[in-house]
Amino acid sequence: MKSRRRITNTIIFILLLIGAVFMIGPLLWMLSTSLKDKQDVFALPPVWIPNPFQFGKYKEIWEAGPLLSGIKNSVIIAVSVTVVGTFTSSLAAFAFAKLKFPAKNKIFLLMLSSLMIPYPAVMIPQFFMFSKLGWVDTLLPLIVPGLFGNIVMIFFLRQYLSSVPNAIIEAAKIDGSSYFRLYSSITFPLIKPAVAAQLILWFMGIWNDYLSPIIYLNSPEKQTLQLVIANFNATYAIQTDYPLIMAASIIALLPMLIIFLVFQKQIIESVAISGVKG
Amino acid sequence: MITKSNLYRKEKIYGFLFILPPLLGLLIFTLYPMIYSIYGSFTDWDGLGQMSFIGLSNFKDLWTDELFHKALFNTLFMMLGIPIGIVLALLLALGLNRGVPGTTAFRVIYYVPVISSLAAVSIMWNWAYNGDYGLVNQFLDLFGITGPNWMANKFTVKPALIIMAVWKGVGYTMLLYLAALQSVSRSYYEAAELDGANGFQAFWHITWPMVRPVTFFIIVTNIIGGSQIFTEMNIMTPTGGPEYASASVVFYIWQKAFGNFQMGYASAMAVVLGVFIFVVTLIQFRMNEKQSFDVD
């Protein structure tokens, strides 16, 4: 029995390994292409390990287009939205979970049901709203809505808060602690891990967003990193400068990859919990 | 002195105050635009402000618009990736759930495409699908198969996008299944083993029913996500592909709204898309009633 199990596990391990090669292979090929010179790119059969390694494209890329301003814009949007938005979201989650006020559950349900309204269904009027304000081709349309909070995060934190005993909060209330203090010095420290995981997921979502930036941002120096690399792709594919395109794409991937590898445990847990609870 | 009614009045005010930002955000950035979208879909709105009511005319035009039909068909066709992804992800999760060595490393590797920027991986796959030098055809070459120029052929462009979508999303689904599998009690399997059930019977009668809610959640969220597919085609086939074979509904909405300034017409499509997603979500709520959110 035991040896049969060991054989099965070995077969499964090998299958998982083959799968892993397919998952990571294209990304490694991307990295390898970015380090090749132009002839090697079109070599048949393919060259996997460039000889010699050409790091030149990673230097060239900064002069080829507005890569640096792309990174800066993406950081500005993602940081301002997630920092302010996490504050407003967690405050609201606290109110929904631990305070009593009329129509609370109705408002919460209204928010939840708004999740089924897809972005494409509201993007056209939103565009006109922001264009009337003169905000097109600025970062504001991508920042301002997020400052008001994120309903998925509110939902998740509210669920998480249900495990925090009410007694702690009631006791502090009787002691005359202010409501903001209840949130900031009692609740928030308790839900920090959940907040961190949600914040990272949200940050990644904004960093990787493509549809809303492409609607609002026209001038090259205003564009986010994702738009900048898409434009690199359109421009340099004609010149078949694939190493340059791949180098730009690697730069777009790298920050999230690093964040993921550092916080992989929290991220995976957070995804698993939110998914299973549905 | 703090009295109970005094406390409650204060709590009411603070409660409202704390939820005010997201509530305002919802009204300004979602509900108001949604109502405006619905109104706009009945007008000939051209983006310059002039809006005259034309009734159902936009919807009638959609009914006969061949490009819209193509975009709709393409969007639905590409959802074939959903069952493929579910089967693969479940197999992966079952494999990982046995505690083979390197489980954490596998989880991370399979999840890397999920966190990768869609724009970057679209660019990478576009290059991988290159007819002459792409990774995909070089791989097929090992088996003596001459691959097509994937993105330029109307019969292969959709399968190519499906393969990429499965690659991108399978790690996420796998993770959800893995979490679900880990919450299934061992005692069920022990009982089944005592009753002489084989591996397949145990899967069919225990595992599959136990992960059903997750399967359902994945199907619904994937349909919602799949119906909004846009970035891939915008980057990989900026013109909508060979004979418009890879244009999605959102791609067509985007083209009509911000390319042709047919805002009314685009709004009508957005409304159709919104209704579709609303219905799918409603079905989820209905079928999941028992384990839906417990609002106390």
UniProtKB/TrEMBL annotation, chain B:
Topology of this chain in the membrane: Multi-pass membrane protein
Source organism: Paenibacillus tianjinensis
Main subcellular location of this protein, as a coarse class: membrane
UniProt keyword annotation of Cell membrane present: yes
PROSITE patterns, A to Z: ABC_TM1 (PS50928)
TM region positions: 12-35, 71-96, 108-128, 160-181, 202-224, 263-283
Residues annotated as domain ABC transmembrane type-1: 67-284
Coiled coil: none
Location within or outside the cell: Cell membrane
Matching Pfam families: BPD_transp_1 (PF00528)
SUPFAM superfamilies for this protein: MalF N-terminal region-like (SSF160964), MetI-like (SSF161098)
Gene3D superfamilies: MalF N-terminal region-like, MetI-like
Family listed: Belongs to the binding-protein-dependent transport system permease family.
Keywords: Cell membrane, Membrane, Transmembrane, Transmembrane helix, Transport
Name of the protein described by the UniProt record: Sugar ABC transporter permease
InterPro entries (UniProt xref): ABC_transporter_permease, MalF_N, MetI-like, MetI-like_sf
